[in-house]
Amino acid sequence: MDFSISDFPVIATNTTITKLTNSVPVGATAVLVVSTIRTSAIGKYFNLLRTGYTNGINVSQQSPTVANVYFTQDIVIQIDSNRYFDYYRSATNINVLDMVVRGWWF
């Protein structure tokens, strides 16, 4: 596992930058990750997006529709030249949030 819930703290701002410098080589422009989430309430979310992106339309989102069930999905994230991406998530009721980098594109 490359990331866990402790790597995605809730910050007061809407988006928070996360770096992939330990997992992804220089020059990569996008990554494929597998993300698993479990929440104790419905309507909670974990969103991934390109750093600095402000349009809410092109955002990858995990939002379980059943509480206390693991949801896993593959997500492609565009990253910047520093290998960063942004995320935002629900402040409460996320019990598990794991993410593994599966690959990348140049």
Give the gist of this structure:
The protein has 106 residues and is mainly beta. It contains no helices and 7 strands.
Written description of the protein model:
By secondary structure, the chain is an all-beta fold. 0% of the residues lie in helices and 45% in strands. It has strands spanning 16-19, 30-39, 46-50, 60-62, 71-78, 84-89, 94-105. It is globular and about 40 Å long.
Q: Would you tell me the structural class of the helices and strands?
A: mainly beta
Mean pLDDT equals: 89
Uncertain residue ranges: none
* Order of adjacent strands in the largest pleated sheet: 1-6-3-4
Radius of gyration: 13 Å
Largest sheet: 4 strands, antiparallel
Question: End-to-end distance, in Å?
Answer: 23 Å
Helical residue percent?
under 10%
Q: How many strands in all? A: 7
DSSP summary: helix tally: 0
| Element-level helix/strand string | EEEEEEE
Could you say which overall geometry the principal axes of the C-alpha atoms support?
globular
